[in-house]
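Researcher: I need the complex structure. Ligand is adenosine-5'-triphosphate. Inputs:
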Amino acid sequence: MLLVRLFTQAMYVCWAFIFQVIINVALGKQQLNLLLLGSGILLFMIIMDGFGGLDNYLGSLLKLHTAQRLRQALIQRIYRLTPQAYDKFGIGKLVAKVTKQTDNVIDNYYGQLLLLLSYTFQISMAMIATITINPTITLVVIILSLPAMFFPFLLKKKLTTSSAEVVKQIDRYTARVTDLLSGFTTLKFALAGKAAVNRHRISNQKLLVKQQENSRWSSFSMGISLLLSDITYISTWILGAVMVQQGRMNLGQMVVFSTLSGYLSYPLLEITRVIPLIIGGHQAAVKLADFLQYDQTASATPFLTTTTFQPTTSFKLQAVNFEADQQLILKKLNLELNLNCKYLLVGSSGSGKTTLTKLLLGEIAPSSGSATLAGQSVELLKRQIIYQQIGLLQQQGHIFSGTVRDNLNLFDNPFSETKLIAALKRAGLASWLDGHSLDTIVSNQSSLLSGGERQRLALARLFLRDYRFYIFDELTTGLDPQIAAALLHDLFSMETETGFLLITHSFNLEAFQKADQIIVLQAGKIIACGKYQDAQIKAQLATLKLGV
Ligand SMILES: Nc1ncnc2c1ncn2[C@@H]1O[C@H](COP(=O)(O)OP(=O)(O)OP(=O)(O)O)[C@@H](O)[C@H]1O
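Model: Output:
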């Protein structure tokens, strides 16, 4: 591509000399057949513009491929984030990074740097050509051009600050739009569409203000540079005219010289236009580069080398405190969970159940005390090791837009048809399969799946992967009691090797009787731990008033 660009710019510079030939022919200084001259010029133009088109095409291909690679790298980075870091960034800001900010970097930084390269080639060639005609005027032209070129740098600080503000505002705007669109149904049914549009208008307005400010500085810089560039250009004509008057240049040389000066002043003017854009794009590029290098100490220090756990492996919490926002959320927890036992975790809303599971999965670190799995600090374990062994199902398992098969395979190596069907049946979707198939297209909003069926599909996805231990966070919340009871029956009938921790708000006698241990959490403290038959447990459960 560089060669094509260099050759194209060389042809543009040679183009100026065609005027000299035409004037020389017109003044009778050169004898050339006009037909031959016309055909030669036509051929030259075809080649020059053909290369111009090719250069443009290769340039845009390079930009498109770079954008594609950048988006790929960003997505890879996103999927290396811990769930906690993912929550911290927020989906809207992450969407902004792979869309608008990537476009910003490619168009305003990378694309403009490529243009800068073209202009640099053009200036260098034009300079070489003008020197052959008259080195003195070339020097004068260059000196006259310098102020126009360096003017944007005087505004660098202003341009950098205003561009950084635009980048920040784009992130906020995308986060707001993502949030509003995710709540579409809520807003629609609360007849709050108008309020949502107003809320959007505020974000949109803030974005516009920052963009306008940035545009004001870029345009100011551009206007001044344009003036300086015009002065440079007209000066070359005046200087040329003086030289012709003094007989130090002929008319043809003057035309070539002034045309070549255009090849100097035009790219110089363009450079002054692209510099503010590069400064702006650079801000977005710095942000994306920071994100690509975002350090997560937790996943960077793997200690455990084994990828399988013994049946006797356990999670151990010893004197664990967890503090956030100067609030003690978990208090002095001591707990041991064997991976082959079935546990129930109960407690009122806000008692710290979900926080406890995050601690087990190493998503958060204890403020004091230790959380270990197989004797290793959970927080420092390689994420993959945990994710290979522990299956997590949150209140609302996500259903991706695609077939049921896609939702089970998770876009990875396909499981056999028999395994997929077996997993669906094990999760209680046998009768659903009578009317649908693995190729039925579903989504998170699809009416083809009821709430319970959605949860069962998510459960089937977990069963397929044969985890050593499962964490079910309010798996049965919102489900029909009969369906919930059937689901719990299936879970508590699983082979003894497979353990799980089930967070529940509702009482189900079979589940409570079959659980190896019931853990009762209250205000961040374990207030009881034992079998359903234990008097202490029964007493605590009675105070909790669990639903059915
Ligand atoms: N990172 C955090 N920063 C601030 N507060 C937090 C953080 N994590 C949890 N909390 C607070 O700790 C409390 C317990 O939250 P948690 O989600 O663990 O409760 P829960 O028992 O799972 O509740 P529910 O049954 O309603 O889901 C809540 O008041 C929550 O606001």
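Model: Summary of the prediction. Residues 324-325, 329, 347, 349-355 surround adenosine-5'-triphosphate (CB under 6 Å).
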